[in-house]
Please model this.
Amino acid sequence: MNPSEAMFSKNAGLTGLPGYALRRAANAMMADLAGRLASIDLRISDSAVLQVIGERTDMTSSEIGKVLEIQRANMAPLLDRLESAQLIRREPIDRKSQAVVLTQHGLEQLATIRRVVLEFEEDLMARIPARHRPHFLPALRALMD
Amino acid sequence: MNPSEAMFSKNAGLTGLPGYALRRAANAMMADLAGRLASIDLRISDSAVLQVIGERTDMTSSEIGKVLEIQRANMAPLLDRLESAQLIRREPIDRKSQAVVLTQHGLEQLATIRRVVLEFEEDLMARIPARHRPHFLPALRALMD
DNA sequence: TATTGTTATACTCTATAACTATA
DNA sequence: TATAGTTATAGAGTATAACAATA
Model:
């Protein structure tokens, strides 16, 4: 069923439209992941930041934002939160920039995050019928920007 | 590349994770659609509601909410907006329930919405490489609930 | 008793504008 | 001049709790 068929079908409703289905799938996925991360008191975006700085050290706030498509302005309160939770430290690079680095506690939490996220991603893929599975990520990446 | 490979690859970053890619793709899609609907002064959820009541007449607010997974509490201000814009009317069914019906202006706007959304959905699918395309909607629907 | 509609409230993600200080 | 970090503010989607009125 292509979009035009879906729009005029009485059966499928909006769920026959890829855009609408994409939104609903993403919402369900976010709710699931948010629930799993709530047990370690983190938001989805918190965990994304921690995962990024766990792989690339000495990144500035702006660089993290570019990688994750988080606005500079929104990085500040996010990092404030992570700093309050003792998960990261801001270390001066020069008098303008600062590196965002994991604390010991942050490093420990990152191990948990990786475990939670990996299990989450595997559960997610497991719900997709096998014949469609290998096509899912390539399709998403084509839409990502 | 499966999730576990992606988690420990230095190259792909988080975009190798289907869940993260799903979130990014949905955000990009929503921004695109929101932009197209802004020209007719509607939000994405406004257009979804109008599309639904354009196909099934005499639906109550609660019923629309169930179909679109919009909380009852969030339907009220949404319908207030649509009513202020003269796109819908609330008509009493009994002393408790009311049907949400399209006005003449709502019916005219719906024609535009259908055109905009159909073009949007086609553009969206066109960005996905052909070999992945037929698998996209089935995969999303498997994740939808 | 369960449901409808509503109000109030809050959280998360995202977005823009504007300011400062420094590269 | 451009960039880094920040503050303030707003919009949009989603969520829960609670209430009155009615089925």
Summary: Chain B touches chain A through 59 residues (CB under 8 Å). The CA atoms of residues 79 and 88 of chain B lie 8 Å apart.
